Amino acid sequence: MLPVTLLNSLKILTQPDDSTCGPTSLHAVYQYFQDALPLEQVISEVSFLEEGGTLAVLLGCHALKRGYRARIYSYNLHVFDPTWFKQSTEKLIANLKEQLLFKSDTKLQVATRAYIEFLELGGEICYRDLTPSLLDSYFSRGIPLLTGLSATYLYNCARERTNERGESIYDDVRGEPLGHFVVLAGFVDDQDKEHVIVADPYQENPLFGNNYYNVQVSRLINAIMLGIVTYDANLLAIEPKENTNKTSTEPQHLHAQTSSGQ
What residue spans carry the region label Disordered (predicted)? Predict the structure, then answer.
C-alpha cells in the first residue's frame, strides 16, 4: 500500500478540547481499520491523567481490550532502563513493580502501572533506534503510527500553561513544554522519504493551521525524542490481529531490537 493510499484512507477529526488529542488520534486509527466507534465513545473509555491528557500506553491498553495487537516503541528512560529489554516479559513486569517501591513521582507511578497492565494484556514494548527505516517498516505495509511527542518543539511555538478556564494558552515565561498526540500517515512518496505526512487532531496548530501537513523526518524524530519531558517519547503501532500473522516484520516476543551500540 502506497503512503498516499494510507493518507487517503486515514481521516482525523479535530479534537473537541485541549486534552483529547490522544483519543482523537486513536479514533482516527480505528476508523482507518474500519472500526466504526464514535469519537465520544473512545473519549469516554480512554483513561485520562488527573492533570488532563493521557499516555500512549493507556491508548494501547484500550486497543488491546478491543482485540487489537499493540506494540510500543518507548524512548522514555524515566520509566524504562535500557538493560531491561534483554530480559523476559515476566522480568520486565517484575522490574516495573520493583521500581514502584522506590520512586514516588505521581506521573511515574501512573505510567508504570499502565505499562504493567499493557504487558499483562499482551502488549509488546520494544527498544529500537528511532530511524526512518523503522517508520518505513510500518508505512510500507499500510500501517499508520500513533506518536506522543513535544508539540512545543514540533510547532516551534511558545511554551504553554493552563488558565483559570482550563484552557491551554501560550506563555513563554510561565509556560511549560506541552506534549501532544498525532498520527503518522506515511512518507510523502517513495522518492521523498525526508518528509512524513502528519494527521494532527489540533487543526489550529500555530505552525501549519491544518489537520494534515508534511514535516521533515529529522524534525519529527527530534520532537518525538523530546517528548520525554512530558512522558511521551514513543510510537504506538496497533493493527488487527488477523493482519499480523502474515504481514508483521517484528519479533513476536518482548525482547527488544537494539542498536549495534547496545
Answer: 242-262
